[in-house]
Amino acid sequence: MPAAPRIIDISLAIGIQAPAWPGDPAPAVAAAHTFATSGWHTSVLTMSAHAGTHVDAPGHILPGAPLLEAFGLERFILPAVVADAGPGPLVGAGAVARSGLRPGEALLLRTANSARGLTDASGAMRTDFAALSPEAARAAVDAGASLVGIDGPSADPYGGAVPAHTILMRAGVLILENLALAGAPAGRHLLVCLPLDMPGLEASPVRAVLLEGAAG
User: Fold this and answer.
1) pTM
2) In angstroms, rounded to a whole number, what is the distance separating the alpha carbons of residues 140 and 186?
3) Catalytic residue status for 60
4) Of these residues, 50, 60, 165, 189, which one is catalytic?
5) What is the pLDDT of residue 216?
């Protein structure tokens, strides 16, 4: 009987390893019921739909574009290629070309963010994280990516316009952000990153994992 593939967790701890985006509510857990008051324990979660490791649908950026509920589960369970994008602040088109991405696959890009983390000295989100260049986003679309993931809080640099988001989302490409890729081997795996089944969401936290080598 063949051994089961190794499961690699590529999610960040919400609010700890992946702090809130500036201006978003900080993730919080409060008690709705306690054993002392009710005889059971029930928690209330408060957080942005973009908290922690999360997937964005086109409706996040484009008015009237599809929300997460429009996408079948096959868009969140798919072959993926993990690729090193180099040390620069912007991922270039060359990193996409070198990845060997095949049509329909997810491209997961490991940048300098994985080595240095996403929190500053105060524990807040770093705003100087590495992100995608518009050229890289276009190269991913041209290569037929179904999803593009990155180990930072946004596919675009902090502040200003969001060209990478726009290019990807106009092509129907999903975006997976705040990935933990430091321990993920480069190459092909099976990605599982299921969003919450909650209508009306433009994004959702996910527990993203790779099944090592399972994509062939």
Assistant:
1) 0.96
2) 17
3) yes
4) 60
5) 67
